[in-house]
Amino acid sequence: GAPKISIFLKPPGVISPGGSTTICCSYQRSSGKFVLYRNGDQLRTLDVRGSRAEFSISNATQEDTGAYNCHYVDGSTVLARSETLDVVVEEFHLPSPVLSVLPGHEVAAGTSVVFRCSIAQLGAGCFLYLEGQLKALKLLPRDRDDFNVSHVHKGYEGRYSCQCFIRDASFKWSPLSQPLDLVV
């Protein structure tokens, strides 16, 4: 397969109207340009700084919702494409969840850790995010707020956050939790 561009949101998750986020695209070359598309339409082009480009969305509106991807181009040649990143802009109707990690923020390799996303809302499911990943790491089903990881290693290091939702006639979302950093 062709080389892939990595694409992710920073911070991850659903964005509230008026909120902001950054779409990050990275690729292992540094001589071309990144082109950002939403729903197949070209939006912006950025020269590469190092091997990464950052496209900011500020004062988000419903029009920012969509399927985004990045192409890496050199002249008129597309050298690589990213997977699709879904950006969602929705009002927040739930309280903020609280993310914690046991036994703590710094653990030895091989240790088991538990991520806990707590929210004062019955029947909420939550997503656990690791910054730099395209998709949520884990969907925590309704009323289960723990995500257990046995034998953590350096690959688990990073900035985690969670976001919760309930689904009735439509989805109702919480803001993102405060992030926490795991050091292995």
Please give the largest β-sheet: 8 strands, mixed
What name is given to the CATH topology of the largest domain? Immunoglobulin-like
Average pLDDT over all residues: 91
Poorly predicted ranges (pLDDT <50, ≥5 residues)?
none
> Beta fraction of the residues?
over 45%
Question: Fraction of residues in helices?
Answer: under 10%
List the SSEs and their pairings.
Elements: E1 4-10, E2 21-26, E3 33-38, E4 41-47, E5 52-57, E6 66-74, E7 77-82, E8 85-87, E9 98-102, E10 113-118, E11 125-130, E12 138-140, E13 146-149, E14 158-167, E15 171-173, E16 180-182
Parallel strand pairs: 1-7
Antiparallel strand pairs: 1-2, 2-5, 3-4, 3-6, 6-7, 6-8, 9-10, 10-13, 11-12, 11-14, 14-15, 14-16
Model description:
With 184 residues, this protein is mainly β. 0% of the residues lie in helices and 49% in strands. It contains no helices and 16 strands. The protein has strands at 4-10, 21-26, 33-38, 41-47, 52-57, 66-74, 77-82, 85-87, 98-102, 113-118, 125-130, 138-140, 146-149, 158-167, 171-173, 180-182. The strands form three sheets. Strands 1, 2, 3, 4, 5, 6, 7 and 8 form an eight-stranded mixed β-sheet that branches. Strands 11, 12, 14, 15 and 16 form a five-stranded antiparallel β-sheet that branches. Strand 14 (158-167) and strand 15 form a beta hairpin.
